[in-house]
Prior knowledge:
The protein is 54% helix and 8% strand. By secondary structure, the chain is mostly helical. The protein folds into 2 domains: 1-61; 80-124, no CATH class. Strands 1-3 form a two-stranded antiparallel ribbon. Strands 2-4 form a two-stranded parallel ribbon. It is elongated.
Amino acid sequence: MSPDFRKKIEKYAPRLGVIAIALFMVISSVIVTVQKREEYRRSTFDVYLAEASKEQTAQQSGTQEAPIEERSVTEGEDIHSPIYAAPSGKRYHYDARCPGKNSREITWDEAEQRGLTPCKKCVT
């Protein structure tokens, strides 16, 4: 090692340690923030599903043996195939990846109650 190189290392070594520690702190705080956001999204969607199912059971128990409504199925729609939607989404999807990471499988009745429309990309 040349003496000039050794002097530069001695000069900048303390700064590199501080920079490394600061970089580690920034990266770890970003990771924690992202994890908390994802946890919040999941919990809010789960709360929404729980409230929606409570409302649905309350409506069903309030109407004693109401006749079952026939739902009109549009052409190409299979009521037995799974559909997906994001919690705040306005469309339903056949492909679970289309609405994003936050999507969950929902029922046709829930899609109808929420007024969801078909996705123009994956529901054709």
